[in-house]
Specification:
Elements lengths: L2 E9 L5 H9 L7 H6 L6 E7 L3 E7 L7 H8 L4 E7 L6 H12 L5 E6 L6 H15 L9 E3 L8 H13 L11 E3 L2 E5 L3 E7 L4 E3 L3 E5 L3 E10 L2 E3 L1 E3 L3 E7 L11 E3 L5 E12 L7 E2 L3 E6 L2 E9 L4 E2 L6 E13 L4 E6 L4 E10 L9 H12 L2 H12 L2 E2 H8 L3 H7 L5 E4 L3 E4 H21 L6 E2 H5 L8 H13 L3 E4 L2 E4 L8 H16 L7 H7 L4 H13 L3 E3 L5 E3 H13 L4 E3 H8 L3 H14 L2 E4 L2 E4 L1
Parallel strand pairs: 1-3, 1-4, 4-5, 5-6
Antiparallel strand pairs: 2-3, 7-16, 8-9, 9-15, 10-14, 11-12, 11-16, 12-13, 12-15, 17-22, 17-24, 18-21, 19-20, 19-23, 20-22, 23-24, 25-27, 26-27, 28-30, 29-30, 31-32, 33-35, 34-35
Helix pairs in contact: 11-13
């Protein structure tokens, strides 16, 4: 499968990130007039870097100025590799350090350092810059990353840098495309004649053109009318790609940066999150209990308060702190999501961490709460497996181990629990998901039977089509087969129905149908066109289609030629009479004499006997089977 990645350019203002991006991609990511005039990046910039049959790489150029830190966090939150840019003539600067802290808190582990503007300094000074950078990177996740020298204007080192990025990403696992689709929005705009367009980096999952979507936390519903990846139309977009989605049914005014496009309702909408955080080493001010903070999560920036359970303030702390963030507005979050905390005034990055539980509750102050959060943080093996399957819906043993970082023996032991179900011999799911889907399909069949009581049921494709985007088809097939085994559903030919359901004429048409059938029976074998009976009974065309099929399926009527129909009893009487008064074989004339029918009815009747397998035609004769 082709893999998709997004890399980010980070670093201090005016250290050459945008120029470097242009040298790599031939795209100027500064689009705004103000950006051109002031020669600084204000908004996120995007460009395609590289694509072949195996891999596609995009670039996010994030603003370096401290005033635009929100845009910076929104940009790097979805990246897979970071290029930390340090200008040779200035070296490590305050924003370099802050970006480095933020990248660490967001869990971005893959990266490299680029020393830019090398044409502006002597070689000896470049060595000092290298040493300075190495010192800053000590005891960080970027301590051992490669370091390259570039001159973006002269194109020196650009090819080498590009090759290194490609090779590093070819060794990296891409984001999960099996889970539900999620795209935090970082840009919203309109296109004349098309409507609302949102853009962002696909965090996980995949999306197809025409797919139904939700905008959370607002709960708006719409569809992906069109998809673009780097200004090129695409039928689908995958985790790791930069994508623009043209939304139908949603106006620009209803959507904003920080909202999240999802394909499933299972994502948590919350205002209270239990978290594990770390703080920066050089905090300028004390962080106090219930202090106002800005929480940056995904592309959202939300005010809230930090709540401690084992302290009332902190200034410096090396380890992880378990606490809670209570937000002023709803966000979309799930376990494992990374975030950044900043002080609103005076502005500074406090720290960051990850979400332990997106549905935090109110707890008492004290060690008992800390112990409970610690246990929740670690999570039992079973809990971790449940979480993985709730997201992916279905995983093999190997995939379960990869998603949970658990050993095979532990996974096998946990799978003995009734919470887990093995299906198709190799994939596992949750009993809760099987029950949930069974209930969903039960309700769909019940509603269908209510709307179309004369139909046998739904074929499998129609029954599951509304949830095939959310669940693997193999899992849905398993749910149906299990429900049939348990006597909840039944199958007749290709149709699935509820076990207790019997096709029937709805009450509001039953009297008219009884009168019509009585008239058809009284006309015996010399009937009129069946459409005449339907019209006389006052049965409209939209009901007549289902009624005719129902009466045929239940053998209450028998078609001679699609226009003439006999009442089922009359047809069976005719077959019995003809068989009684003929030998092994008979001719048309003989049958006409026995039944007293003209050729108008006789020929269609005999052809229906052939079609239904009562007889076989041999030249001018028919032989009973």
């Amino acid at each position: 499968m082709k893999r998709y990645f997004t890399i980010g350019m980070a670093g201090h203002i005016d250290h050459g990130k945008t120029t470097l991006t242009k040298a790599l991609t031939n795209v100027d990511t500064d689009r705004l007039k103000e950006e051109k005039e002031r020669q600084i990046s204000i908004e996120l910039g995007f460009a395609p870097l590289y694509e072949d049959n195996e891999i596609q790489i995009s670039v996010v150029d994030v603003p370096g100025h401290e005033r635009f830190i929100r845009q910076m966090i929104a940009g790097v939150a979805g990246i897979d590799l970071v290029v930390l840019v340090v200008a040779a003539d200035e070296g490590v600067m305050p924003q370099t350090r802050e970006h480095l802290d933020i990248l660490g808190f967001l869990g971005i582990r893959n990266g490299l350092v680029v020393i830019s503007k090398i044409d502006r300094v002597e070689k000896e000074f470049i060595e000092l810059v290298k040493e300075d950078i190495k010192e800053e990177l000590k005891e960080t996740v970027f301590e051992q990353v490669p370091m390259l020298l570039v001159d973006s204007i002269a194109n020196y080192g650009i090819d080498e840098l590009k090759a290194m990025i490609i090779n590093m990403l070819k060794e990296q696992e891409m984001r999960d495309i099996k889970g539900a689709f999620r795209l935090p929005i970082d840009q919203v705009f309109t296109v004349k004649g098309q409507g609302t367009v949102v853009r962002g980096t696909v965090y996980e999952g995949r999306i197809e053109e025409g797919q139904s979507l939700m905008i959370m936390p607002k709960g708006l519903e719409g569809k992906a009318r069109q998809i673009q990846v780097h200004h090129r139309p695409a039928r689908e977009a995958f985790a790791g790609q930069r994508a623009a989605i043209n939304l139908s049914g949603i106006s620009k005014e209803e959507v904003e940066r920080g909202d999240v496009v999802v394909s499933s309702e299972h994502f948590n909408v919350t205002r209270t999150i239990d978290v594990a955080i770390q703080v920066v080493e050089d905090l300028d001010y004390m962080v106090k209990q219930r202090m106002p903070i800005k929480c940056h999560i995904g592309t959202a920036e939300v005010m809230g308060r930090i709540v401690f359970f084992d302290r009332n303030e902190l200034k410096a702390e090396n380890g992880e702190i378990l606490c809670q963030i209570r937000l002023d507005e709803e966000i979309v979050a799930k376990r494992g999501d990374r975030f950044i905390l900043r002080r609103p005034s005076p502005q500074e990055t406090i720290g960051g961490g990850w979400v332990i539980d997106p549905q935090g509750q109110k707890y008492r102050f004290g060690e008992r709460t800390i112990a409970a959060l610690e246990q929740k943080k670690v999570g039992t093996p079973g809990e971790r497996m449940v979480t993985a399957l709730m997201e992916a819906k279905s995983l093999t043993m190997v995939e379960l181990m990869a998603h949970t970082s658990l050993d095979e023996d532990i996974v096998k032991e946990e799978l003995q629990s009734e919470d887990f179900i093995l299906y198709n011999g190799k994939e596992y799911t949750l009993k809760a998901l099987v029950d949930l889907n069974e209930e969903e399909l039960y309700n769909r069949l019940r509603d269908f039977h209510t709307s179309y009581p004369m139909k046998q049921g739904l074929n499998k494709g129609e029954l599951i089509q509304h949830i095939t985007k959310q669940y693997p088809k193999g899992l849905l097939d398993f749910v149906i087969e299990e429900a049939i085994k348990l006597g909840i559903f039944k199958r007749k030919e290709q149709f699935i129905s509820l076990k207790e359901f019997v096709p029937h004429v709805p009450n509001n048409w039953s009297v008219r149908v009884e009168n019509m059938m009585a008239k058809l029976k009284s006309d015996r074998m010399k009937v009129r066109y069946f459409s005449d009976y339907l019209k006389e009974a006052g049965i409209p065309d939209n009901v007549a289609i289902d009624l005719r099929k129902f009466l045929e399926d239940t053998s209450q009527i028998v078609s001679l030629d699609g226009q003439f129909y006999w009442h089922g009893e009359i047809f069976r009487e005719a077959v019995a009479k003809l068989k009684k008064n003929t030998g092994i074989e008979f001719e048309v004339g003989e049958a006409k004499d026995i039944l007293g029918l003209s050729r108008k009815y006789m020929i269609p009747f005999l052809e229906s006997l052939d079609r239904m397998g009562f007889t076989v035609r041999q030249e001018n004769k028919r032989v009973w089977k």
